[in-house]
Specification:
- By secondary structure, the chain is mainly alpha-helical.
- It folds into two domains: 2-101; 114-143, no CATH class.
- The chain has nine helices and five strands, in the order H-H-H-H-H-H-E-E-H-H-H-E-E-E.
- The strands form two sheets. Strands 3-5-4 form a three-stranded antiparallel sheet, covered by helices on one side.
- Helix 4 packs across helix 6 (57-68).
Length: 143
């Protein structure tokens, strides 16, 4: 039955029939990760936020992977979209989702957006740019 409802939602581009199955906190985790991904692509903003809020970390990881990888190449634009969705969540949900993502994809996203200087090895680096120094003061990250 769940598979039929997902199919209906994808065809109609409307998640109302999914929400009629019950509490989203119980329904969404039962969905296959690929279904969460495809539903998030057709859902309106509020429905997409409900999906992301109640999705298990494994489901979010699937969505992240589908939008951030093109064969063997990392696509930072796909990561931007998922990070924006995750950051909009309430604090506890945001932390759960971020901590659950695999570090390799998160690291690749960071590398695509900043330049990292090793302050102990590189004598010269641009000083006129906004930066973040890591707590150990070994690295500086600049956009």
């Amino acid at each position: 039955m769940l598979q039929q409802v997902v199919g209906t939602c994808l065809m109609t581009r409307d998640l109302d029939s999914l929400w009629m199955l019950g509490d989203p906190a119980e329904v969404v985790p039962q969905l296959p990760p690929a279904a969460v991904y495809h539903l998030s692509r057709v859902a309106e903003y509020e429905d997409r936020q409900l999906l992301v809020l109640h999705a298990a970390v494994e489901q979010i990881q699937c969505c992240w992977d589908m939008d951030t990888w093109n064969r063997d190449r990392f696509d930072p634009a796909g990561a931007d979209g998922w990070l924006a969705r995750i950051v909009e969540l309430p604090d506890e949900a945001w932390l759960e989702k971020i901590h659950g993502l695999l570090l390799d994809g998160f690291g690749l996203h960071l590398l695509s957006r900043v330049v990292i200087f090793n302050l102990k090895m590189e004598a010269e680096h641009p000083e006129d740019t906004a930066y973040y120094t890591t707590p150990d003061e070994y690295f500086e990250l600049q956009p």
